[in-house]
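for the writeup, i need someone to sanity check this before i put it in the appendix. the sequnce is what the collaborator sent (i think, or maybe the updated version? ugh). structure was predicted straight from it, no edits. if anything looks off just tell me and ill rerun, i have time this weekend
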Amino acid sequence: MLTSFSMLPWRLLHFLIYGSFCFVIVPLFPGLVTVDAFTGTYGINYGRIADNIPQPESVVTLLKAAKIKNVRIFDADHSVLKAFKGAGLELVVGLPNGFLKDMSTNEDHAMDWVKENVQPFLPDTHIRGIAIGNEVLGGNDQELAGALLGAIKNIHSSLKKLHLEDLIEVSTSHSQAVFNSTYPPSSGTFKEDVLVYLKPILDFFSKTGAPFCINVYPFLAYDFDPDHIDVNYALFESNSGIYDEKTDLHYDNMFDAQIDAAYAALEVVGFDKMEVIVTETGWASGGGGDEKGASPENARTYNYNLRKRLFKRKGTPLRPKIVTKAYIFALFNEDLKPGQGSERHFGLFKADGSISYDIGFSGLKSSPAPPSSISLKDIQVKGWLAPYSLIFITCTSILLLVLA
């Protein structure tokens, strides 16, 4: 008596067997599917140095209503990680500078940190990256700078031991202090004393595929030298721009110019293939009397034009094929931040959840956002099934060619 399998055409039988094999074997090797730490081109920094901002659950509602999917926090606060559970938002958590020296010398502590602050929240909270420190290089703390690479390696090693290295990207962000020169963009170079620490980090990231992360603030450049920088050049408004004679490229905004200066500096030290991602950029809506350009009008203009520029999904003059990605600084005005007055006025939203100025978002107060129509089931389908469907289609195509 023939079984139901033996009655199937032999080609169909082979297709079912090998197709099933694809679905069985792929989950056993998660390295076959990697998840980018950044979806699209637009993200935001969710700082919380404040005592009057909305609770994390309300922040999730705000982000989903604004359709901002990429979010960075500067620590791994559990209340935030729990609130982001099932939200479908892509989150980068931070290992604060104060942890670096310990993590660089103690692998067990690095593993404990990952097990306590990352692993328990997966997969429902989409942690896609860990930022190791922030703006460490270029400062005066040489001991901290020396600890950065060790902390990066130990956190990455912990992720690898837990089979999470293909899910979670390890990176670190730099300020403009790492550069010796940025003008014109083609003259971009790193400081020699910074390269002592930076070069080994770049070597490591070139192997893991991590980007070079830079914080870009045309606001700070303009505030430093308002007599020689056209504010329209800093704000993406109409201006004559600058011409880079070496590359024969024209720049009509400082944002692109600063990114290309980073690309030029990377090329000088042998990392011309490394992607540059902007991890902070923004414009203050207020500040002290001596802070030039800090106003609601300029903040709105910069952030509105930046959003339009990012949504075009284009690159820079020097790297036109590499789509520019940026995290805006910041989500809220943070009333407890130290420093100049502008530090407390970078938020797209005020502390009560209302908009600071209109660039197309709705605030919690002025227009309460309804719950997102995207269900957890939808998120799982989009976030999990899509990569595996691609693999199944690839397997199917190969089988059809073989069996034809």
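The chain has two domains: 8-35+389-404, 36-388. Residues 39 and 273 are 20 Å apart (CA to CA).
thx in advance!!
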